[in-house]
Amino acid sequence: MKNLFKLLLVLFFVQFTFANGGVVIADIENGTYLRLVNSQIDVTVQNQISTVITSQIFINDLGGSQEIQYAFPVPGNASVTQLRWRVDGGEWQVAVFIEEDPSGGGGDGDGVTPNANLVSYLGATPVYFAFIEEIAENSEIEVELSYVELLPYSFDEVTFEYPSDYSAIQSDVIVFAQNLNFNLFSERTIDDVELFNNVGTMTNDGNVATVLISENEAISINDILIKYQLASDELGVIPFSTLLEEGVNECDDFGNGFFGLVVEPESNANTEVIEKNFVLIIDSSGSMRGGNKMAQAKEASEFIVNNLNIGDNFNVIDFDNNIVLFQPELVEYNIQNSNAALDFIENIVALGATNISESLVTAINQFEAGAEDKANIIVFFTDGGATEGETNTQNILQLAEDTVNQIETEIFLFTFGIGEDVTTDLLTLLAVQNNGFVTFLGDNEIVDIISNFYLTIRNPVLLNPVITVDPVGAINNVYPDPLPNLYKGQQLVFTGRYEVPQDISLTLTGTAFNQQVEYNYDFNLSDQNNEGYAFLPKLWAKTKMESLLIDYYSFPEGSSEAEAILEIIEETSICYQVLSPFTSLGDGGTLSDGEFMDDKNNSLKFFPNPFTSKTKAFVYLDQAAKILIQIYSIEGKLVKTISINGVYGRNIIEWNGEDNGNKLIESGIYIYTINIGGKETHFGKLIKK
């Protein structure tokens, strides 16, 4: 049962990263694929939203007819809007994805183990589809996939990536064409467009840009990477909303509407940024000697010092069981002080215990004499728990709170936990209770993550932002909560849900230069299902889980509070099919991003779903066969078995929400499997209200 339940979870996140779009698999164990002969990729980007229509033609020259399967590496934040295929130029057939484990068992147990070369391509959440009919020898199949995505953005730069390098799957020539048509439309001025890894032609008139790649009778092109720069002197405000059709979203009852808002301040050289009182706290306890943690910590610290701004005040604190300050109090950032701080950091030696409490009190007290119009920022990183001074988590938190209250100021505390021995609830609560956030990283990630993090918070523009909506309650379940500060070159992504389409007024307030500022916007919550915004449900679920993760880590591991939050995260992750730290499996297991097949011969859709007292589904058979339905809890426990002697034609499956002991089950997510004639044919999720 353990392996079976692992398979069921595995089926939600099939992770293939296949080049040139997708791959058609004939033999997953031995790595046999249909030969790719043509690839056409059409991309339209409208104000940072990309719509990709990718079509590949494959030929069956393997000798004899083949059972085939298809996989495609959809980006983690993207949503598929359509998959269709046709054989030998015939009529298109449209699919709604069937979730199927390509290994036959998650890569372990009695299942088939995928070919090692195929496994090497495992990556982020692609779709997976198993064709019902075999493909005849020498026949061609064209598969077309469409998906939408909000492209990643940082410091005026938007990035589009597409995995077009097919060489690991097919080393010989792709006999026809490999074409990319990339069309970019932006209300914000496009300053520059760059194509990496491949040769192509580009145009840009400031609001419309194109990139074209065309190769004929050639080996696979390289992965496509396109970056474009937007004007830094224009405020970016992009609203999105879509209203899903009734019954499409069965995950919750927050309404069928999804709303998103991307806000970014001007980021040019003339943009005023809030100066900082900045304190960097470096753990130099004996455990930091492990691996190259101390060397990385020094490198990251030196990067931060080198990238402070003129006008900032700063200090550096080195702590083990003792507290050593670079200077007794905050000093002005200039070349002389910067060089002296770099020498101080270089001479830090890892030795001693971990006195977290005194290091924090010392750092907070640095702000007592600090300028009131500057942002008080602490960056604190450690690889362990408190072993010196105050060691109790609640007492350390209270000590930090009392110190902040004594100096009557506001701080922004960002904590970094290095390795596996940190006290997660302490670091999380220190950050959350002091207007910051926590990041947990591996021993070898210190330099990259902390350096990149600092660049994002280097230039604060709006502190303590708050969004209000009129009418009140028009948008519910908003995330992130609370909103992070707004920084130059970074976007604030705000998401929420709605039930009633209507016009709304949205107000963004916050503090800048010790003054309250306010921005007002008018938007319409759409009454239409906009496929171009199909990424919104995943974006909302992702931001919700990120907020819940902070809550989760604020409680001791295994506590009832943490377990309750964990259950919500898992349910959200599975139902919206967005990866989380608790539902991405790394033992060869993979999940698909699909929904269920929906044609008259293979449909299996329970309704209502979610259900309160009873739900049912129809199964169509072309001959009599035994139908076995097994229903499992989210923990993998078998709760109900239903056996039916299936007949030709329509068969009804009904479940009244009782377990095998005739007791009503609790509310939650359940997984079902359908076995027809000894063969697993369907599976999916049921939600009991």
TrEMBL record:
**Domain VWFA: residue ranges:** 277-457
Extract the SMART domains matched here.
Answer: VWA
Q: What UniProt keywords are attached to this protein's entry?
A: Signal
- What Pfam families does the entry give? VIT (PF08487), VWA_3 (PF13768)
Every VIT domain range: 20-149
Q: Superkingdom of this entry's organism?
A: Bacteria
Signal peptide (UniProt feature, chain positions): 1-19
- PANTHER family, alphabetized: INTER-ALPHA-TRYPSIN INHIBITOR HEAVY CHAIN FAMILY MEMBER (PTHR10338), INTER-ALPHA-TRYPSIN INHIBITOR HEAVY CHAIN H4-LIKE PROTEIN (PTHR10338:SF108)
Its name, as the record gives it, is: VWFA superfamily protein
